[in-house]
Amino acid sequence: MASRFFSTRDLGTFDKMAKELVNNVVAQECVIYKISAVETDTNIYGEASSGKVYEPGVRVNALIESEDFSFETDEFGPDSNQAVTFAFQRKNLIDINLKPEIGDVVSWNYAYFEINSINENMLVGGDPDKNFDLVCSAHLTRLSRVNLTERQQ
Amino acid sequence: MAHRNIPDIEKIDPVNRAKEIQRSTDEFIDDGSFTLLNLDQSILWTIRNKIQPQVIDNGQKIAVPVLWGTAERWKSVKTDGYLRDIRGKIMVPIVLVNRTSMEPNESLTPNKDVKNIQSLHYKKYSSKNKYSRFSVQQGKKPTYELFHITMPDYMTVQYEIILWCEYLEQVNQLTETFVFHEGKYWGDPSTNKTPYVKGVTYEFAQEISTDTDRLIRTTVTLETLAELLPKYADGKANINKTFAVENVAVTFNETGIPPELE
């Protein structure tokens, strides 16, 4: 049953305004690399030790919130970490046919972040069919883990 | 009247010029000491030069860097900066060495109350024993260069080697290499500082949490019997060339038993 508020027209307005805000006003960009589960071989431990294969990176605009870097110092020396939240407009992702998933890698600010959780909880008017955004929580991942850059010897 | 405050050490140990003997530079190759630094160097030398840990990463064979644990922060960031990415995140694989414990070996404990327990050694070769017909005809005895060496303390020292990789398959490769090399003498064979090292335990850690990367590590505990001897015991050198048999000709004249003794 169509609700009195948040009609399709209203939602279209929200989408249009949000798209303009994310793409033209804030204009924070990141690149999403999705792991190709078909092409990536795994061993008996469930790890891609022979190398991960990624789909080509897709440039997407998002609202990005980053926490401060934290350095944990142990016997290996200082090791940095950072938690970042990437908030994507759902309509934007549907337009480019992209669905970020846990384990995918996002490149932003000259670093790589592995998505560790996904939140799709902004339901306009509480309606599950009017899901508005997709928020990915990610952490700074090791360069040696993503296999996206040439390894120096 | 001013008095010079003479420290006790000057009163006890005045310089004895009689002991200040010139020696050729090649006489002592080694001072006989075996310090913890030597032991640590032997362990690191073997891992870096004999074991040479390598893993296959993304189809490429890469040499695994070996570090001593708990370095100073500046060293970790500047000298070992190549192990981190632009954001300061450590890249693995990496091998870390740490000395964790040391205890006296009870079965090899000397009586420490006795002063200056020393062992006596001699060099088989001496440059002074040159072969000549004269020395053979005269029946000269060869000269032995004798050395008194302070007895070392036998300590059991344990090391912890952390093998940290991205994948369990890589950790397996490194662990197998360490298993192969345990039970051997470690250290540079050109020195006499090659302790026997055996593996004690191999502990595997595989952790995964929500907001950090997966952690794959093996902790290898190695044990070695070290003959520790400081560079200067009681403020004196450990090796003393105290006595050398005189290079003398010995002749015996046959004489009968004196009649008064018969």
How would you describe what is shown here?
The complex is a heterodimer of chains A (153) and B (262). A 7-stranded antiparallel β-sheet of chain A has the order 2-1-7-8-9-6-3. Chain A has a two-stranded antiparallel ribbon with strand order 4-5. Chain A has 153 residues and is an alpha+beta fold. Chain A contains 3 helices and 9 strands; from the N terminus they run αββββββαβββα. Chain B has 262 residues and is an alpha+beta fold. Chain B is built from 5 helices and 13 strands. Chain B has helices at residues 8-12, 36-51, 73-79, 133-138, 168-181, and strands at residues 54-57, 60-63, 66-68, 94-104, 118-123, 145-150, 153-165, 184-185, 196-207, 215-228, 232-233, 236-237, 239-244. The longest helix of chain B has 16 residues, at 36-51. The termini of chain B are far apart. Chain A binds chain B through residues 43, 45, 47-52, 69, 71, 73, 75-83, 110-111, 114, 116-117, 137, 139-145, 147, 151-153, and chain B through 56-60, 62-63, 67, 69-71, 73, 75-77, 80, 82, 84-94, 96, 98, 162, 164, 166-170, 210-213.
Rg from Cα of chain A:
18 Å
- By secondary-structure content and strand pairing, the structural class of chain B works out as alpha+beta
- What fraction, in percent, of the residue positions of chain A are helical? 10-25%
| N-to-C SSE string of chain A, H for helix and E for strand | HEEEEEEHEEEH
Instruction: Report the total helices of chain A.
Output: 3
Total strands of chain A: the figure is 9
**Largest interface: chains, residues each:** A-B, 37 and 41 residues
Describe the sheet with the most strands of chain A. Answer: 7 strands, antiparallel
Strand order of the largest sheet of chain A: 2-1-7-8-9-6-3
Cα distance spanning the termini of chain B: 77 Å
